[in-house]
Amino acid sequence: MPSVLETSIYRTLAYFAYFKYPLTSFEIWKWLLEPGQPVSLFEVIQALEGSTWLQAKFKKYHGFYALGEVDVWHTDRHLRFLDAMRKYHKAERAVQLLGRLPWIDGVAVCNSLSWYQTKQDSDIDLFVITRPGRIWSARLLSTIPAILLRQRPGEAASDPVCLSFFCTDQALNFEKLKISATDPYLAYWCRSLVPLVDHSGWMEKFEMQNSWLRAVLPNAQFVRRASRFRPSVKLHLPWLPLSERLAKQLQLERFPKVIRELMNLDTRVVVSDEMLKFHEHDARQQIRQALADKLAVL
Fold this sequence. Notes:
The protein is α+β, with helices and mostly antiparallel strands and 298 residues long. The chain has 2 domains: 65 residues, Orthogonal Bundle (Arc Repressor Mutant, subunit A); 189 residues, Beta Polymerase, domain 2 (2-Layer Sandwich). The chain contains 12 helices and 8 strands. The strands form 2 sheets. It has a 6-stranded mixed β-sheet. It has a two-stranded antiparallel ribbon with strand order 1-2. A hairpin with a 3-residue loop joins strand 7 and strand 8. The longest helix is centred in the N-terminal third of the chain and has 29 residues. The relative contact order is 0.13.
C-alpha cells in the first residue's frame, strides 16, 4: 500500500493532469494536496526518486512529472507561458485604470493567467476588491471603459478583459463558496491569486480569513510580487456623486438571461451587495469528479 506522502503526491499530479500541466519536484511540494502532515521538499524528492509505486504511475521529462504525456505537456506549458507574458502586459495596462477608480481597493489576476498558462483565445481574468457599500458603483465604473473600448469577452479581437468577480473587503472568506466538503479547485484558485493592486491591505485580510486553506495546501503561500513587478498605480480619481442604488438598478436590469436564471441558485453565480460572481461556466464539479476517478485506483 502507498504511504500517506505517496498518496498525496499522486493526488497532486492527478489534479494537475486535468489541466495537462506538468510539475517540477519543487512545484509538487509547493502545491501538495492534502498531505495530512508537514512535509519537507527533501521528503518529496526522496519519494519521487525512491518510490517504485509512484514511478509506475508518473512519467518524467526534463525535470517535469505528470500522469500523462509529459513531453507534450511540457512543450505546451512553455508555449502557454509565452502567451501569458504577453497578456500580463495588457493586464497591467488595464490595472492602471482600474486601480485608480473610486471605491476599488484591490485587483488581482486569477484563473489561467495567474498560472501563466493561457491559450491564444483565453481571457484576461481579473478579481476586483471594492469598498463595502460600493460594489455596484465600482463594477459600473469598471465596465464602462471595457464597453466603450470593446474589450469584453465576445467583443475584443484578442485578449479580452473579463471582470466577472467582484467582492468587498468584508466578504473575503471564500470557504462559503465551496461546492462541497472538498473543493480543490477553489483552494488552488485562492492560493494562485496574483495581486497587482492593494490599496487597503486586502491580501493580508484574505489570508487571515481563509485559514481553511492551510489544511488543503499547507506548503503554498499567497503570491507577493515585489513592488518593481507591480504596476505603478496612482491615487484614486476624485470621488463621484454616483448613487449606489441607481448603479445596482441599472445593472440588474441588464443582466443576461442566463445570469438571472442561475443567480444565487448555488455558488456559481452569486449576486449580493457584498459579492458579484458570474461564473456560469463553473467546471469545479467536473474537475472534482475527474480527480475522484483518478483516485479510485487507490
